[in-house]
Amino acid sequence: MAFKALLVSVLAALQVANGALIRRATCSDGTVVANSACCVLIPVVQDLQTNLFDGGECGEEVHESLRLTFHDAIGISPAIAARGQFGGGGADGSIALFEDIETNFHANLGVDEIIDEQRPLIQRHNITTADFIQLAGAIGVANCPGAPQLDVFIGRADATQPAPDLTVPEPFDTVDSILARFSDAGGFSAAEVVALLASHTVAAADHVDPSIPGTPFDSTPELFDTQFFIETQLRGTLFPGTGGNQGEVESPLHGELRLQSDSELARDSRTACEWQSFVNNQAKLQSAFKAAFRKMTVLGHDETQLIDCSDVVQTPPAPASNAHFPAGLSNADIEQACASTPFPTLPTDPGPVTSVAPVPPS
Q: How far does the chain reach from its first CA to its final CA, in angstroms?
């Protein structure tokens, strides 16, 4: 009986393994995928890398494509829907499909530029706008040294109506309102909000302060590293909450911009220790952002009804920097916010204090 049971178990395991092998497919370019439906993405990925991301750079188009994934997906509110005021939203492509409406929302200022750059690529391929926006973000991030290999799904239906206004958090929003907005959109915890903000390590601002376009949020905007979490903890000065500087905090690094919301989240008792935990912890940065991005990218959808095509995403380059203080700064310049754990001791870059260069425009 024991031998018979063992034989049955072995045969069952072989059937499962054989089924898994049957489901795998080799696309025309030789890429092996777990589901043959994902082969349709191979030419889309090639088009993205060649014609949007300049052959695989971690530059402005990557920053803006990643920003667009968030601005599309977060535009969902079960609380609004429950009141019968609005349904739908989430990662459904509405921000591009209803560009004339959603790009006029104050929080979406400037996203029309990347929408217009992506549109010709979408038109060349058999893919929904909803799927394309999230795919472009994941492929772009994978060009950045130190980034995680993000998950990609296809099968989202395109939006039939625009997302509601006032669902995208803004730099001058309070921590209370930001946490509440994320909780409403998808049940995101405070820790997941901090993880999603790791996207600012490869980001720059063009419209927060129009007088200084392309201003990065940390000193290494071409690297997916932990510098953002270090440099937001440096002492800074809040600008007045009016005019072009609304939502902006002065950074001690010339040429670097700090969002008011990032500054406050880095210092709030609900998020400060989680924020600090990313400092010099590349592995956590990668895993936490990967998990939070996956959750965001399927907002408004049942993940079990989508097709996992994560194996079309290239392996990102290895991390290319070590956590450090910029030249002329040290632990003495940190505004300690986590009450339970000291800020890590880090080396300081040698040499004179230098300015952070703006991110070149596309």
A: 70
